């Protein structure tokens, strides 16, 4: 379970890194990244990071004070 969660975190980070590289490379290359592709990469990276971090650090029940 931990490997899967950390795999999701790494996947999310790589997707976000790919998005940044594509957006920064857009100024140097004539290759255009569509808005829907950028939004899909951002959403997939954010979702993978969120789910992976939630699996790594599960919620603990609150104890009354």
Automatic annotation (TrEMBL):
Keywords, sorted A to Z: Membrane, Transmembrane, Transmembrane helix
Transmembrane segments: 35-56
Domain of life: Bacteria
Official protein name in the record: Uncharacterized protein
Organism field: Plastoroseomonas hellenica
């Amino acid at each position: 379970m931990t490997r899967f969660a950390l795999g999701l975190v790494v996947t999310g980070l790589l997707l976000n890194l790919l998005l940044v590289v594509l957006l920064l490379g857009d100024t140097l290359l004539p290759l255009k990244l569509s808005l829907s592709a950028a939004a899909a990469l951002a959403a997939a990276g954010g979702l993978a990071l969120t789910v992976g971090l939630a699996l790594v650090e599960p919620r603990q029940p609150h104890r009354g004070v």
